[in-house]
């Protein structure tokens, strides 16, 4: 385990030199350096004893020793949090969710315990309306630079001029196919659903998430991804109920099953598609030519966050382009921040999974706020699952 | 006579008050709360909104599949449990030596101390692609799918509830008067007729206790279908959790919860009736 | 017959063996065995969230089982002294506490407590003299209460069965000899029902320690070990979890053996 300055333990000489080099490179601040190497406590104690400093060195902001973040499956580089813990002494607990509805339900019930979470673009206005998230104190997010963000993806974080959420990355929702098991090339949602009931019988997964599962069933008929029209939803439900017995599972965490070979085809987000294809080249990522979802995930801080200082500290850490670039290489989704893109290797920037051709991108739709809270879609999904 | 009537009454009240208060605050009040919720409406953004309507109950048929899954898989699961448990209990009570009996009994109880979650997770691995299907691929059986099937859920049920079925049957068999068995054999009865005429009949109280215990627990099962059914084999418990944690329809969830309680009570009454009929005068109260 | 028994025990222990085996995995995932190592035991014990979840579970299970043992036993003793009408009412409620599925207990307690807190917290805030009024919230208290409900009913049931077979002539003899009711209770009744109380306590402890579904709803922002394990299954289980499960298993097997040994020493004739 890493030594944090909170332990007050001496560091090894290698560690000291390493931290000193980081200080010189400027990747950590002086106070962090003093803290990490244990010199902070020594100076503070000495200073206090000698009456030099009125308060200990790091009393400015008490970050506590732990915090929780709510996010999506396979969404972060574990090293990101380990490094954050090393730098600040704050341990990070990662909670994983499969849908925005699940996150919303947890926040609505109160006492979620999260100090940071990752909502998707179309949900932010509802969180704002229900008064569940905080206005962000931009002074604490010194690493964030609004000018380097691609406004096309980041607008929904700001409501009436007030910033409630800052972007993490954007992406698309398509499907992943194991091309060794399902050899017929596929390009559309129609083929996805038809294959699920034929060659892919018992081997196909859909999200445990009404937005995408219902949305992509609507696409089978060429309806809007966000449709709330009863007759269109009825057709989508008919399709879903028909497909249900042929599915392998209804779950938003499909990577384990795809990797183990239990599932051959799954509804899939860009980042998972990129990760799967990187590790198992025969798994391809396909965007339905009828369209589907394009999304941006944001970071936001719940109103009842138990440790806001640590939430801000972690968020600021994640906004550091040096950190974000590693996050993006691990996560695999395209980034909204030009500073990060400048640091990404060429093969990432040219990956067609991340940056699909224009004719595939054009028909995609962002989720709509009404789709999140619409009771008929929620009930349709629940009926589908219990069918 | 110990103490005056007044003191006696005071002591009785003191003994019963904590339990009574607990039952009222954490059983009766919550139940009243969900009854009130169940006649309410879903708020526009999800949750609960006060109303007086029976819409939620009228909507119950929308979960018919989950109802049937539960009402079919619970007795089937309990019965499968019984089939596996009975020989084990029989062996423990009547065949095993004193020493082995203690060891085996301990071995039945020990799994209770490892989290059921972890053990079920181990089954996810065993039944999943890297487990048995990989082994079977070596002998030429390709692409067999075990996980996320009703069979996997049934296996998880038998696994999780087996000890609960074995113990009551064991207890009733252990109390059995062995002289009856000897007498039956001496009178020339065949082992099979001794078994059905005496042993099985006398173990019925244990069988019905175990069976209704497992049944009742299965009616509200959530974890096993979630983990081994892949969100495909839905129990009422799963439908219920889904309504609270995904679709945020608290009133409808409350209506299902009320219904689930009623179903449990009915099942229990039937089980008690059946048990008293089978075991004659020997009434076995589960509760 | 023997082969069948052996197969059943293999079936019971195969998953446990796997859990233990993977706790010694060198790799990061609990699904691929890549080598042997004990590193995850160290990691598990230095993971603050896992250790806290374990501590919470131990605390909650001990407290709820203790309360259940005391209150359940008191109720069992009290019920022997009341009219059949009151007894029937208690019987119905205690029975319901056992029969109502855990998922319903969890949800109804959540619904009721959230409403209660929403009503009480503003009142507390308005009458509180200081700046930071106490806020009632879900947490230890609600888990202990919800677990204790089931456990208490269980304990009272077990103790009542035991009371039913109690040797009453001793009690009568004791009061004939002018012992105070309390002395009679302490020296005659309590020793006879103690095994039942202890059995109830143990059952209550294991129930609370292993319960997921009730705690899942009423835990608020607290984490118990089963909640932590469930969350880990979603984020990808690391062998840390296997390590903790193995430690818990070893500790409990040790306790069982110890209890057996102590019991045997006390009752040498058995």
Structure description:
The complex is a heterotrimer of chains A (387), B (287) and C (270). Chain A has 387 residues and is an alpha/beta fold. Chain A folds into three domains: 5-50, no CATH class; 66-169 and 296-348, 3-Layer(aba) Sandwich (D-Maltodextrin-Binding Protein, domain 2); 171-294 and 355-386, Periplasmic binding protein-like II (D-Maltodextrin-Binding Protein, domain 2, 3-Layer(aba) Sandwich). Chain A has 19 helices and twelve strands. Chain A has helices spanning 13-25, 30-36, 39-50, 78-88, 100-109, 124-129, 151-154, 189-196, 210-220, 230-243, 255-260, 270-279, 308-319, 321-331, 338-343, 346-349, 358-361, 369-373, 375-386; strands at residues 66-71, 91-96, 116-117, 158-159, 162-163, 166-178, 204-206, 247-250, 265-269, 283-286, 292-299, 364-365. In chain A, strands 6, 7, 8, 9, 10, 11 and 12 form a seven-stranded mixed β-sheet that branches. In chain A, strands 2-1-3 form a three-stranded parallel β-sheet. Chain A has a two-stranded antiparallel ribbon with strand order 4-5. In chain A, helix 8 packs across helix 9 (210-220). Residues 1-11 and 40-60 of chain A have low confidence and may be disordered. With 287 residues, chain B is mainly alpha-helical. Chain B has one domain (63-278): MetI-like (MetI-like fold, Orthogonal Bundle). The relative contact order of chain B is 0.13. Residues 281-287 of chain B have low confidence and may be disordered. Chain C has eleven helices and no strands. With 270 residues, chain C is mostly helical. In chain C, helix 3 packs across helix 10 (225-235) and helix 6 packs across helix 8. The chains are: A alpha/beta (387), B mainly alpha (287), C mainly alpha (270). Chains in contact: A-B, A-C, B-C.
Topology, element by element:
The complex is a heterotrimer of chains A (387), B (287) and C (270).
Chain A: H1 13-25, H2 30-36, H3 39-50, E1 66-71, H4 78-88, E2 91-96, H5 100-109, E3 116-117, H6 124-129, H7 151-154, E4 158-159, E5 162-163, E6 166-178, H8 189-196, E7 204-206, H9 210-220, H10 230-243, E8 247-250, H11 255-260, E9 265-269, H12 270-279, E10 283-286, E11 292-299, H13 308-319, H14 321-331, H15 338-343, H16 346-349, H17 358-361, E12 364-365, H18 369-373, H19 375-386
Parallel strand pairs in A: 1-2, 1-3, 7-8, 7-9, 11-12
Antiparallel strand pairs in A: 4-5, 6-9, 6-10, 6-11
Helix pairs in contact in A: 2-3, 8-9, 9-10, 9-19, 10-19
Chain B: H1 5-38, H2 55-58, H3 64-95, H4 98-109, H5 116-127, H6 132-138, H7 150-174, H8 178-186, H9 191-219, H10 223-229, H11 236-245, H12 250-278
Chain C: H1 2-23, H2 39-45, H3 48-79, H4 84-99, H5 102-127, H6 140-164, H7 168-176, H8 181-210, H9 213-218, H10 225-235, H11 239-266
């Amino acid at each position: 385990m890493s030594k944090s300055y909170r332990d007050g333990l001496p560091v090894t000489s290698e560690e000291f030199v390493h931290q000193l080099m980081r200080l010189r490179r400027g990747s950590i601040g002086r106070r962090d350096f003093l803290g990490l190497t244990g010199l902070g406590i020594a100076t503070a104690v000495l200073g206090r004893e000698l009456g030099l400093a009125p308060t200990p060195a790091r009393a400015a902001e008490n970050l506590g020793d732990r915090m929780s973040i709510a996010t999506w499956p396979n969404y972060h580089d574990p090293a990101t949090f380990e490094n954050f813990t090393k730098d600040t002494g704050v341990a990070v607990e990662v909670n994983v969710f499969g849908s925005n509805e699940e996150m919303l339900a947890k926040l609505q019930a109160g006492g979620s315990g999260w100090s940071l979470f990752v909502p998707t673009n179309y949900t932010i206005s509802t969180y704002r309306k229900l008064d569940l998230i905080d206005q962000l104190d931009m002074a604490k997010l010194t690493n964030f630079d609004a000018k380097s963000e691609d406004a096309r993806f980041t607008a929904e974080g700001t409501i009436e001029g007030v910033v409630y959420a800052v972007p993490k990355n954007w992406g698309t929702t398509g499907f992943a196919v194991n091309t060794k098991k399902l050899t017929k090339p596929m390009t559309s949602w129609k083929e996805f659903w038809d294959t699920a009931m034929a060659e892919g019988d018992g081997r196909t997964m859909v999200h445990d998430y009404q937005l995408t599962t219902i949305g992509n069933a609507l696409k089978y008929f060429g309806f809007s991804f966000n449709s709330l029209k009863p007759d269109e939803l009825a057709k989508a439900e008919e399709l879903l109920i028909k497909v249900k017995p042929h599915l392998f599972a209804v779950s938003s965490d499909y990577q384990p099953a795809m990797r183990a070979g239990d599932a051959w085809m799954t509804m899939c987000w860009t980042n998972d598609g990129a990760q799967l294809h990187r590790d198992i080249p025969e798994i391809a990522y396909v965007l339905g030519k009828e369209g589907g979802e394009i999304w941006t995930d944001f970071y936001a801080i719940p109103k009842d966050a138990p440790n806001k200082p640590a939430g801000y500290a972690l968020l600021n850490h994640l906004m550091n382009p040096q950190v974000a670039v590693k996050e993006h290489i691990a996560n695999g989704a395209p980034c909204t921040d030009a500073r990060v893109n400048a640091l990404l290797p060429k093969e990432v920037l040219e990956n067609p999974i991340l940056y699909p051709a224009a004719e595939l991108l054009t028909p995609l739709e962002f989720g709509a706020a009404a789709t999140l809270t619409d009771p008929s879609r929620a009930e349709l999904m629940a009926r589908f699952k219990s069918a | 006579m110990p103490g005056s009537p007044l003191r006696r009454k005071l002591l009785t009240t003191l003994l019963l008050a904590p339990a009574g208060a607990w039952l009222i605050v954490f059983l009766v009040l919550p139940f009243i709360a969900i009854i009130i919720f169940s006649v309410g409406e879903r708020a526009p953004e999800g949750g609960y909104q006060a109303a007086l309507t029976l819409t939620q109950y009228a909507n119950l048929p929308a979960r018919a599949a989950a109802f049937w899954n539960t009402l079919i898989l619970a007795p089937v699961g309990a019965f499968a449990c019984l089939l596996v448990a009975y020989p084990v209990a029989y062996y423990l009570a009547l065949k095993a030596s004193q020493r082995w009996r203690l060891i085996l009994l301990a071995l039945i109880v020990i799994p209770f101390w490892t989290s059921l979650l972890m053990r079920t997770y181990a089954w996810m691995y065993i039944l999943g692609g890297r487990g048995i299907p990989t082994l079977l691929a070596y002998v030429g059986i390709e692409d067999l799918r075990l996980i996320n099937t009703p069979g996997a859920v049934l296996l998880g049920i038998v696994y999780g509830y087996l000890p609960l079925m074995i113990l009551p049957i064991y207890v009733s068999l252990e109390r059995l008067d062995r002289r009856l068995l000897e007498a039956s054999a001496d009178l020339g009865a065949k082992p099979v007729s001794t078994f059905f005429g005496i042993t099985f009949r006398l173990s019925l109280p244990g069988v019905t206790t175990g069976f209704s215990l497992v049944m009742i627990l299965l009616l509200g099962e959530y974890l096993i279908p979630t983990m081994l059914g892949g969100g495909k084999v839905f129990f009422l418990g799963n439908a219920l959790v889904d309504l609270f944690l995904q679709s945020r329809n608290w009133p409808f969830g409350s209506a299902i919860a009320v219904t689930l309680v009623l179903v449990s009570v009915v099942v229990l009454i039937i089980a008690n009736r059946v048990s008293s009929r089978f075991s004659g005068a020997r009434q076995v109260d589960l509760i | 017959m023997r082969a069948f028994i052996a197969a059943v025990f293999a079936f019971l222990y195969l998953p446990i063996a796997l859990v233990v085996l993977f706790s010694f995995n060198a790799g990061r995932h609990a699904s691929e065995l890549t080598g042997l190592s004990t590193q995850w035991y160290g990691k598990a014990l230095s993971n603050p969230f896992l250790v806290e979840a374990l501590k919470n579970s131990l605390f909650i299970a001990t407290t709820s089982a203790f309360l259940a043992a005391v209150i359940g036993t008191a109720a069992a003793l009290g019920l022997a002294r009341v009219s059949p009408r009151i007894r029937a009412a208690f019987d119905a409620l205690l029975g319901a506490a056992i029969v109502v599925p855990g998922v319903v207990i969890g949800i109804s307690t959540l619904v009721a407590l959230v409403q209660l807190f929403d009503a009480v917290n503003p009142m507390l805030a308005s009458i509180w003299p200081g700046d930071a009024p106490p806020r009632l919230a879900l947490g230890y208290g609600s888990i202990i209460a919800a677990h204790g409900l089931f456990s208490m009913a269980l304990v009272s049931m077990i103790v009542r069965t035991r009371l039913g077979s109690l040797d009453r002539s001793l009690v009568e003899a004791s009061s004939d000899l002018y012992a105070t009711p309390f002395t009679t209770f302490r020296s005659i009744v309590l020793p006879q029902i103690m095994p039942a109380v202890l059995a109830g306590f143990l059952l209550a402890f294991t129930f609370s320690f292993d319960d997921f579904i009730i705690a899942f709803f009423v835990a608020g922002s607290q984490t118990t070990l089963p909640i932590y394990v469930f969350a880990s299954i979603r984020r990808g289980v690391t062998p840390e979890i296997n390590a903790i499960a193995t430690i818990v298993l070893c500790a409990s097997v040790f306790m069982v053996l110890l209890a057996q040994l102590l019991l045997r020493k006390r009752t040498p004739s058995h």
